[in-house]
Amino acid sequence: MYNIHLEEIDSTNSYAKLNLDKFGDRTIVHASRQTSGHGRLQRAWVDLGEGNLFLTFVLKPSASFAKVYSNLTQYLSVKLSMILEEYGLEPQIKWPNDVLINGKKIAGILSETVIQGNEFKGLVLGIGVNLNSSAGALECIDRPVTALNLELNSTIKLDEFRNKLVNNFFKDYDEFLETGFEFIKEYYIKHASFLDREICVQILNEKKSGIAKSITNDGALVLKNNDKEIELTIGDIL
User: Fold this and answer.
1) Is this model's pTM higher than 0.85 or not?
2) Based on the domain organization, do 130 and 210 belong to the same domain?
3) What is the mean pLDDT of residues 155-172?
């Protein structure tokens, strides 16, 4: 495993994609400050300054894309939740990969696949976690968010948290690639915050509403509207 630290960068994911050919499999890119982080649907990830986690896993597991790679964000959400439990918290997961504490988002996860021509070059799996922030800094964000230090009333050691997450991620990584989403399904469902509820899901330029009935063995969301059930593989619960 390779470890690259940057003092400041626009986005660890963007940097990793730009330099992908230079990096070996399982390279870790992390930064002290990230000025232009982004999440799904190009949402901006607000920079709360130093002391927070900005990290990208560079992964090159094979020469061709496999379906299980689409579930890596869910795998990372589970691994993050396990770390938060070590700190005495009760995390919730909102499909597909948002991690919440007391209904407030604490992390952003984004996977981006890199393909040149017909060749799969690898993927970059980025995560930002609010570890140390003031309550005032979070008030400017237009949705409920929190930071680990505010939940624990204690400053969080960034290096310690990062090492925990990286080690926990790779501990079961190979087995997850072999088994797929079923490897984490039980934990994922136990911590799901959305099942058996009426929800609205944004899917690109359209919205679908219904009862969140279940999660398939592939990590898809089963949404029931009247007597019709549909499986969603992409989208964001609003």
Assistant:
1) yes
2) no
3) 96
